[in-house]
Design goal:
It is a single chain. Helices cover 34% and strands 11% of the residues. The radius of gyration is 22 Å and the shape is globular.
């Protein structure tokens, strides 16, 4: 990117950053606006880590399929590479801990089934998995007019010889049918004030974020104290023509985030919400022959919200960008070994969400592998 295609922002972190100013892509004006009013911060040079590593030991100390979408994506959602809580995700573990403490929590994915939301059995809540169009009517075209009543009757009363699996199936199915109908009615009665996309625009992330704002407004009726949502915007695997691809992807994303923030302010939930952004890995600093970028490791990510202590770039961007650097973090073609783990941001966010020190060992089972200076507390990330 040329300098004239970037918004300049001050790092406001001279102790750890090698530069006084950084740049934001010109198509992401909302990030610049939120940064300027201190409602958004960045964490630089961060990525999936099991423990601190450098060029000499990263292969042996990072037991994941580095630089591959499938391996890195799954582990980024789980943040538990040693399987201390097998099959679970960080969002699901947060919800599990809250439920154990009597704080009712719902979890939603607007982008299919996600490991991020899988909790610890039996205390983890079951996720709601919704499409971007919201909730459809259950069994909308039954083969018999009374089919739904028949299904409910079959799964209603148990007998003395009912098996555990049968009981569980019937209980869960009955709950799903009731909850789905209730939630559908609640969501359909919510008014959205902000335009999330242009007329006739196809914008999946806008549809997802709009549905999130609808769901947020039903929390009281659902009787919950916390909500966790998962949304995803794909299409950034820019092996070719990275500038052109970003010119297509970023403006719709910017509009969607702008509408999301505006809606939260309108409905009075801006200060009670944090949005955290992750990607499985960053991209190579050196372009390939097709004008694109390839799979790398460390990247920069952001968080935003009315309670975020923003206007600064945390982490520590590398001071050297060539192989043979003194820190031993630069691989070929500008692939950077992260200095800060995902746990850095997630620890502070989990504390803000209500986790105590004991809870954090369940939510982030790898965090004790890192020194305190590589992790952030809620007071580092949030005001008040």
């Amino acid at each position: 990117m040329e300098l004239n295609n970037l918004y300049s922002i001050p790092a406001n972190n001279v102790t750890y950053q090698p530069c006084t100013h950084f740049g934001i892509h010109e198509d992401m004006s909302l990030l610049k606006q939120l940064y300027d009013v201190e409602d958004l911060l960045f964490v630089s040079n961060a990525g999936l880590l099991a423990r601190p590593v450098d060029i000499d030991n990263y292969k042996g100390e990072t037991p994941v399929s580095l630089f591959s979408h499938n391996g890195m994506r799954d582990e980024t959602k789980r943040v538990d590479v040693f399987d201390m809580f097998v099959g679970t995700g960080v969002g699901g573990r947060i919800a599990t801990v809250l439920n154990r403490r009597g704080i009712s929590t719902n979890i939603f994915s607007i982008f299919g089934s996600q490991a991020y939301l899988t909790g610890i059995a039996p205390d983890g809540p079951a996720p709601y998995i919704l499409s971007t169009q919201g909730l459809s009517t259950f069994n909308v075209d039954p083969t018999l007019s009374s089919m739904n009543d028949i299904i409910k009757d079959l799964n209603n009363a148990s007998t003395s010889d009912s098996g555990w699996f049968g009981e569980t199936w019937s209980t869960k199915l009955s709950e799903i049918i009731v909850n789905q109908g209730t939630l559908q009615t609640l969501v359909e009665n919510v008014t959205v004030n902000s335009p999330f996309k242009l007329e006739d625009e196809i914008n999946e992330i806008a549809d997802q974020l709009e549905l999130v704002t609808r769901l947020m407004q039903t929390a009281n009726e659902r009787g919950v104290g916390r909500d966790i949502f998962y949304v995803e915007d794909s299409g950034y695997d820019t092996h070719l023509d990275v500038k052109y691809r970003l010119s297509l992807k970023l403006p719709p994303l910017n509009r969607a985030l702008d509408a999301f923030c505006s809606e939260l302010k309108t409905i009075g939930l801006w200060n009670q919400t944090v949005l955290i952004q992750f990607s499985e890995f960053g991209r190579t600093l050196a372009p390939n022959s097709g004008g694109g970028s390839d799979h790398a490791w460390a990247g920069n990510h952001f968080m935003l919200g009315g309670s975020v202590k923003g206007g600064k770039i945390l982490g520590a961007y590398p001071s050297e960008l060539r192989e043979g650097d003194t820190e031993g973090r630069i691989l070929s073609r500008g692939r950077i070994i992260p200095k800060f783990p995902w746990d850095a941001m997630l620890q502070g966010v989990a504390e803000w969400f209500g986790m105590n020190t004991t809870d954090l060992d369940t939510v982030l089972p790898m965090r004790n592998n890192f020194p305190a200076e590589l992790l952030y507390n809620s007071t580092d990330l949030f005001i008040g």
